[in-house]
Each structure stands twice: as structure tokens, then as C-alpha cells.
TrEMBL record:
Keywords: Cell membrane, Lipid biosynthesis, Lipid metabolism, Membrane, Phospholipid biosynthesis, Phospholipid metabolism, Repeat, Transferase, Transmembrane, Transmembrane helix. Its EC number is 2.7.8.-. GO terms for biological process: cardiolipin biosynthetic process. It is found in: Cell membrane. It holds the Pfam family PLDc_2. GO terms for cellular component: plasma membrane. Residues 237-264, 416-443 form the PLD phosphodiesterase domain. This is Cardiolipin synthase. It comes from Mesobacillus boroniphilus. The active site is at H242, K244, D249, H421, K423, D428. GO terms for molecular function: cardiolipin synthase activity. The lineage of its organism: Bacteria, Bacillati, Bacillota, Bacilli, Bacillales.
Amino acid sequence: MIKRRLEFIFVFILMACFYIVLFTGYSQNFKVSAILIYAVIIFISMYSLMLENRSAQHTLMWMYVMLLFPVGGYFFYLFSGQLYLKGYLYKSKRTRDRDQWEKLMRKEESRDLSFLIENQQCFAKYAKNASLTPITTASKAKILKNGEATFSELKKELREAKKFIHMEYYIFRSDRLGREVIDILVEKARQGVEVLFIFDAAGSMNIAAADLKNMHDAGIKAAPFSPLKYGFFNQKFNFRNHRKIVIIDGEIGFVGGLNVGVEYLGENDKIGFWRDTHMMLTGESVYTLHNVFLLDWEYISGEKVPEYHQAMKKPQEDDELDGAIQVVPSGPDTQQGIMSDFYYTMMSCATKSIWIATPYFVPDEAIRTALRVAAAKGIEVRIMVPEINDSYLTQYASRSYYSELLRNGAEIYSYKKGFLHQKVIIVDGNIASIGTANLDMRSFHLNFEVNVFLFGTSSIRDLVAHYEEDLEDSEKISAVQYHKRGLWERTKESFARLFSGAL
């Protein structure tokens, strides 16, 4: 706490020194003193950074940022570079969540996973021990392609809710689609259905006050996650809740890449067609997904998780076995980098193919190594990214990683039909991941995320078919053409890569 307060004092001192040197008529000696004070503060900050024992790459990157960008570099470091703060800021939530998961897991019987084949067993051995969430065998997953299929299914199930609707979104807009969903929630609340609604304070900052009042008047409990007005000086505003969860009556769950807004239906002229993947869960896995929501609700509201929500639906004798499913939350409320570890292990267990579709491809060193080695071994590695990204730095940082992958035999595809936003990984055609976590540092270290991992489920066939359809709307990047790109393109890529650890 003292260190963070001191860092904010440093910000104001640095700003004052910068202003004195460049914009005042003080004496030369006074300006030299200001420069010395500035240099001492930067040195102290760099020394403190060195003592954190991060990787040499990240330590040097943030040192360069503080040295080369006066004041702004320090400010950027303070709010984007201090990933270690996650351990302090969310310690209470992480401890409370872990206790709750351990308590709930003690109530559950472990499932027999002997039916999984070799590569699935390879991944399951890690997944079973790395996360406190169960691998369930009495669940089903239905793949929902794009916004039209997702929101038509979601609205239908919302209208049929009998007991409760629990909803959590990163972006929820007060546009036509958002108000359609709100109208359903209000109607169900007035019928006596319990409605709890979490929205991220940054992602949903434009949600209309009138819509929130309408929900409140109907008896809906709506609350923001990490309100911005409280997050500036404690730096929580940089850690956002990127989850998209809907639970209906404890029987049905929705999760995936789609937020709520008309652009996700492809109705934004600037963005155009929106390619995404969502899913609907039934069975045991809904219980796990629900608890991710409930623990978030307990954190922001202070309300204890109700006992009636704490029982997993047991498999029935007539339940048809359809592979296995695991719901895995990640972020500041779990161990650091767990989603990156899941992705890495998943790829390391591949024997035939690794197919990736992601809007933001900024992999860490472990994942780059897994992909590079897999491709060199002759495993089919395909990476699909959007032709045009909504982030300049991310777009060019992503391209900076192409060279080493193409050189080892990986295939990279540029999706041209519209904006590709789905977060899908398919390994050997029989293991898959769908969820909210991108393949970038922000999802690995800063955001609250949740993914669903599929082991041999029939729904993976739909993912494979959809991926093959997307390839028809993509252009394969030629290694020869890529290496012939101009100096200006390479410069932009290299510059963006410098900041890839903070994207």
C-alpha cells in the first residue's frame, strides 16, 4: 500500500519536473535540479523493477519505456506493467474463491475418464490437477455460430426461465439488442424470477442510466464489476472482467465470445460481418460455470453464495456419455497464467493437428515454442486471425510472430469476410477450447476469463466444420510474400512487438 502511494507521488513529481524544464523560465540551476530529481525517481523505479525478478525481456522492456518516454512511459508502466499488483489487489477474492472451490469439490465424486483416448488422457491428466474445477462426463455442449444463432437461442431460453437468471457480460450496450434482452429480464423479474446482472464497469461504461433504473425498478439486482471511480488510484481499473456468462435455472448455461450489442449481429457498418463462436451447456458443467458467476457476484455484492445453488446435478443412469467437459476460470482470482498453461499443455498433447482461431495473437514464449516445435515435427499447425484488427498495436504485434512460425512449417490464414472474434482451439479434431480468453498477455494475466475445454464431445465436429468453412473466407499467407514485405511494415511490426508484453 505504501509503495503504491509512493508511486503516485512520483507521477506528480515527474510531471512537475517535466513542466519546470520545458515550460518555465526558472534559472538553469533550478532546471538542473529538476532533471536530477527526475533521474533519481526513474532510477529508483528501475531498481525496484529489477528486484521483482521478472523475465529479462519484460524487465528491459519496461526500463526502455521509462527511459525513452518521459512521464508517459512511467505512467504506462504504472498502469500496464505492474502485473505483480494482481497478487495484492485480488488476494482476498482469490483466497475466498479457492476455499469455496475446494469445499465444493470435496462434495463431488471424481468421474471415470478411462474412456478418453491417448491424446485426451495426456491433456486430462494436467487439467484434472491444475484447476480446482471438475471434469464432468454428464454434460452436453451445443455450438452456436455467430450472433444470430446465439441471441435467438439465448432470448428463447430467457423467456422460459422459471426460477432465476444470472447474467455477466464484459460489454452490454443500450442499443436495440441490449434493450430487447433488458425487456425480457424486466418481464421475468416482474413474474417473480430472480435476476442478477453483472456488467464490467469499463466495457459497459455506456450502458444507459435509464436502462439500469428500469431494471432496478423491476426488482433486478444489477451491479458493475470494479467501478472506475474507485479503481484509478488502486489500479484495479486495468484488470477487467472479460467473462460472458448466462445461467438459467441452474439447468442451462451460455458462454463464449459474444457480448451484447448490435455489432455482434453484424449491424455496425464500420465493423461489418462479425464472426464469433458461443456455446450452450447443459448438465453437470452448468454447475461449474454457475459457481464462477456466483463467486463474482459474492465479490461485488458481499452476498454469500446461497446454499440452494451449491449442488451439482448428478448424472442419471440414462444419460448418454458424450465425452467430457471442463469449465476453467482464469484471471486475478486464480493462479497467474493458468490459461496460458492450459493452452500450452493442450498444444503439447497434439499428435496430428493444432487449429487456432483468435482475434488477438500475441503468444507468450511457451506457446510460441509449443507451436514452433509442433510444426517442425510435422503436426499441422493452422492459425487464423482477422485481416483487419480493431487494435493497431495488436495487429502489427501479431504479424511480428509470423516469421518464426512460417519458417517451421505453420500455416497462417488471414480472415477476410469480416472481423473474426472467436476464441477457438482444436487439437487433433477431438480436443477443443471455446471461451472468452484471447491468445494474448491481457487475457493471460490481467482479465477475468472463463473457457470451456471439450474432450471428445460430438460438438467438436461442428467446430471442425465451422473452421473449414472459415478457411474458405480466408487467404493463406505465403511465406515468400511475407518475407518480401517492405521495411515500413517490418518497422511497424517490430515497434508493436516491443509492447506485446503489455497488450
